[in-house]
Every structure is written in C-alpha cells, then in structure tokens.
Specification:
Number of domains: 1
Strand order of the largest sheet: 4-3-2-5-11
Oligomer: single chain
Number of helices: 2
Distance between the termini: 9 Å
CATH topology: OB fold (Dihydrolipoamide Acetyltransferase, E2P)
CATH class: Mainly Beta
Structural class: mainly beta
CATH superfamily: RNA polymerase II/Efflux pump adaptor protein, barrel-sandwich hybrid domain
Radius of gyration: 17 Å
Number of strands: 12
Strand content: 35-45%
Largest sheet: 5 strands, antiparallel
C-alpha cells in the first residue's frame, strides 16, 4: 500500500502495480550488482548496466524491476551524450498533438518514449539512442506473481484516503 501526494506516487511508485496504475511506464527486469546506499547499478538481461537513484536500502544482487516513465526517456541527437544509454530501433510512432509517442525495441525489451521531438523514421529501420537520467529510474522489488494491469480490479484502489493523497493497493 502506498499513501502519498499524487505527485510522489507518480514520480516514485512503491510497486510495479502502482507505477502501471498511475501513468505509463516501461519496465526492465534486472539484478542489483552494486549500491552505495544512494545509487544502484543494475545489470539488465542483455548484460548492460543502468544506474538509478535509490529511495531506500537494497542488497547487492537483489532481483528488481526498473520502472521508467515514458516522458523521462530522451532520444539523443547524433553525437549527443547522455546517461544510461540504450540503443534501439523505432517500431511504431504516434502523433498525440503536443507530443509524439514512439515504441522503441531494445535488447532489454520495448520502451515507450513520449517526446516533443518529431522524427523522420521508418518502422524497424530507424535506429536511435535513448538516454535515461539516473533519477528517472525507479528501482522496484521484483513481484513474481504480479498480474497484468488489465486483470486488476478497480476496487483495488482504496476510497477515502486523506485529502491531497492517493492510495494504491498491491497484492
């Protein structure tokens, strides 16, 4: 269960269920390989490592899931530098008015990217480099039996939480 102001729940969800229920996120499974108490280095399935800012203590080699909000991922321009870089190929793109939403296939899985950038792209052919700031990566505990978001019952949300807060229940 997570009680907090809505902005805190959106930015730092306590579980995959909360992250998926409140907004759109991409999820990457991994193992913590190092931590200094403030940051963690997480090895993803491809062997690539990402850095994340921690909200609480972790143990090395913890199985975790990284949650990343689509608007926090940047598509780098040619020659531009960034942090936590993942190469990928644009699979789909959608114009949403003020923004564009791209689905980018990476060695880790598909990531949703929402950006004001309009790109000239062709599905499956346009390669990009994604940059994910370490403070945008939320380290969540692995939930082995987590249900898919579409199987959740809306009654899982708790009514009557204190004003200015939201509450979510994870099973």
């Amino acid at each position: 269960m997570q009680y907090a102001p809505p902005q805190d729940i959106y930015r730092r969800p306590a579980s995959r269920f909360v992250a998926d229920f409140i907004g759109a996120s991409s999820f990457l499974p991994g193992n913590v390989v190092a931590t200094d108490g403030r940051t963690a280095r997480v090895r993803l399935i491809s062997g690539r490592e990402l850095e994340a800012t921690l909200e609480g203590p972790l143990v090395n080699r913890d199985h975790v899931v990284l949650a990343i909000r689509s608007e926090r991922i940047r598509i780098l321009e040619r020659g531009e530098e960034g942090h936590n870089i993942l190469p990928g190929t644009i699979r789909t793109g959608l114009y949403l008015g003020a923004t564009y939403q791209y689905v980018v296939a990476t060695a880790e899985g598909e990531l949703r990217v929402e950006t004001p950038q309009e790109l000239a792209w062709q599905a499956g052919e346009t390669t990009v480099r994604l940059s994910i700031p370490r403070e945008a990566v939320v380290v969540l505990p692995e939930e082995p039996d987590a249900a898919t978001p579409n199987s959740r019952d809306p009654s899982d949300m708790i009514a009557g939480s204190p004003p200015g807060t939201a509450a979510a229940v994870a099973e």
